[in-house]
Amino acid sequence: MEAKVSAASSLLAGPQFRRLLKFQMRRREGLGSNELEIRTETFKIFIVVDDPRLWFTVYRMRLRSPEDVQHRASRTSDAGGRWVLKKRYSECERFRRLHLKRIEAWEAAVRSEYAVVKVPGDARKTFALVSNSMRKAISPSFPKKHMRGDTPAIIRERVAGLPRFVRKLVAVYSDLTVHMANRLLHSSDYSASWTMLSNIMTELEAFLEIPQLQKDAETRRKSAVLALQDVDALPKLAEGEGEEQLCSICLNEDAAAEEDPPLVRLPCSHHFHEDCVIDWFSANISCPLCRRSTFQ
User: Fold this and answer.
1) Do residue 213 and residue 267 come from a single domain?
2) How much of the chain, in percent, has pLDDT values that exceed 70?
3) pTM score, two decimals?
4) Which CATH number characterizes residue 264's domain?
5) Is the CB of residue 74 less than 8 Å from the CB of residue 283?
């Protein structure tokens, strides 16, 4: 997925969305081997209190975001990143079928829009990236459905398989939060598919029970990146004030690595190398110099 995004990122509309894609990829690279942590335990729910033969299994999954796993105690209380899901196998299996049905309906709507609107090749690649992102949750490794009651072997299979499914859904959710910032997807030419995509996002949030703190943290990070503005020329200093410091994050130590690394300006008017401040935003969304919040 990341290789496809990297290859096509220049095709995807505007510097703001390009920076958002870069942030997503560099954020994942920075997390290294850390991934969404899911610890699963099971318990029985008896359908009839006085009949121990009638019961079903509930899978309680404790989730920790990759950022929470990496930063551990240094995380602030408003950063989100931890929550609990309680699901039956049947709920997960039903949502998997629903998710595939929604994807297929969205793809059909996009094809219908192609027939009406003259769609350039770059736009088609954009929609293909979104489709690939959503489909990665549909895996043949999903635990099989059994007609008999839950046995220890069936439960073990699901304890291993259901967290994998949830982890992929969270990755889909994370990708969609980025792709939906692309103005191309919600242009008037694609209103039908945009409505469907928005509904898919709403259903993902509901099934995954994404906590409000987590959604707020993602919104702040995304808004910080989208608030960056290109810097075409540095402000001139008064005579005798010396040279303007290009980037106070790297102190220009990497200037030789790239002839003209792009500069961006924060809402507070301080400027930095684009790559430097995007990496900074993975852990902190305040200005590296004045510490003013970049979240507007």
Assistant:
1) no
2) 81
3) 0.81
4) 3.30.40
5) no
